[in-house]
C-alpha cells in the first residue's frame, strides 16, 4: 500500500517487526467464549469480592479502541458488536512473547484475550489478560478520538469507519433491520406469501420513472433494472397467489436528494378481492404494529414534530387538499393552461409534455406535501397520471387510489388494481404517446403483461411503501442517505 503518512509508515514498520518475530498479522479465526454484553450482564452487578471468587477464565475478541500505557502494564478498551469493555495487560501475567507482541499493537487492531474479570480501583469491570494475541493488524489509524468521523460526505463514503467510531450509526442500522423484520412478521402473520421477482427486466414497468439500462451479452438483448416489481407481482396474482409481498430493491435513474437515492428499498404487496379502502385499514394496522413493536408507543418524534399513529388517519381527496391546504383555485384545478400559469408563478419547473394531472401533482408536491405531518391519506388521483389504477365508478376521470404522507413525505402509493385488459392497453398506449412526446418517465407498452391480464385477474388491491423513508421517520433522520448503508455518491 502507498505510504501516505508517518503514522502509516510506523504501522508498516511494526508489522514487519511482528513478521520477523514469527507473528501472523492475520491468523485464521479465534474461539470466543463470551461477548461484551454477556460479560456485562453476568458480572456487571458483582462487587470486587464476588468477582475474585469467580475462578472461570473467558475468551473474548474485539477491536482496540483506546490504550493507556504505564510501562509494564496497560489498559485498553476493546469493542465487539455488542459493546465495549476494558482489558488490563500486565507483563507478569502474560508470556514475554505476548508482551512484546502487545507492545507492537495499535488502536484499531483486533485482538483476542483470555482472562478473568475483576474491578479496578475506580470500580470499572475489567478483564485481566492471561493470554493476548493479535487477530488482525490495522495499517491505518482510526479517525481522531475526540472529533470522530464528523464530515457528512466522509461518513457516507466510508461507512465502515462511521460504524466503527459512531455507535449511534450502528444502532440506527440495527433498528433498520428490526423494523424490516417487524414488517415481514406482520405480513407473514396475515398469511401473505413472500416472493422474489426479477431485478433485470426486458420491459421496465410498474412505476412512472426513468430506468437504468444494461445489456446481456449472451442473449444479445437490452435489459433494464426494475423501477418496481408491480407487474411481475400481479402476474403472480393472475397465477393464483392471492396474497403476496416482496421487500425489494428498486432502481430509478433520477436525481439525488434528501428524499431520493437511485437505489432504494421498497415493500410491495397485493391482496385479492380487496379495494384501496381495505388497504387503508391494513396500512394503519401495519404502522401501529411496527411502531409499538419498536417503541412501545403509537407516538414518535420526527424532526421536532410529534407524530401520532393512532388510527383512524385523515382521508382527503387530492383536489380538496390542493384547494384547502395549498390554496389552489378551482380554475387551476379544472384547466391545464391556468395550472401551468400558476405553476410558473410558483417557480415550478414544467415541460411542454406535462399533462394537467402532472402539473397538479407538481403543485401538490410544492404546496401541500410539506404540510402533511400527521399520517394522512390523499385520494382521488387523476386517471391520466395513474396508468395502472382502476377508474372510479362514479367519476372515471379519477382512480381508486391513495398516497400516504407522513412527516411531510410521501410514504406509500396504493390503488385498486386495473384488471380490465382493454382499458389497460389504452392506458399503455397513452403512456407510449407521452414517451414519444419526450416524457422519459412514462411507462412502456408491456404485451406479456397484457396477455397475462387477458387470462383474467381477480379484483385486487396493491400498495408500495418506501422502506427507506419509513426508516427515516422511525430513526428521526433528515436525509435518506443517513439510513442507507452505502448511498450513491458522486465520484471524487
Give the N-terminus to C-terminus distance in angstroms: 20 Å
Q: Name the CATH superfamily classification of the largest domain.
A: Bira Bifunctional Protein, Domain 2
Shape: elongated
Strand coverage percent: 15-25%
Task: Report Rg.
Answer: 29 Å
CATH topology of the largest domain: BirA Bifunctional Protein, domain 2
Number of helices: 16
Q: Which class do the helix and strand fractions yield?
A: alpha+beta
What's the number of extended β-strand segments? 18
What do the pLDDT scores average to?
Answer: 95
Domain module count:
2
Main-sheet strand order equals 6-10-11-18-17-16-15-14
CATH architecture classification name of the largest domain: 2-Layer Sandwich
The top-level CATH class of the largest domain is Alpha Beta
Largest sheet: 8 strands, mixed
Low-confidence stretches: none
Helical content band: 25-40%
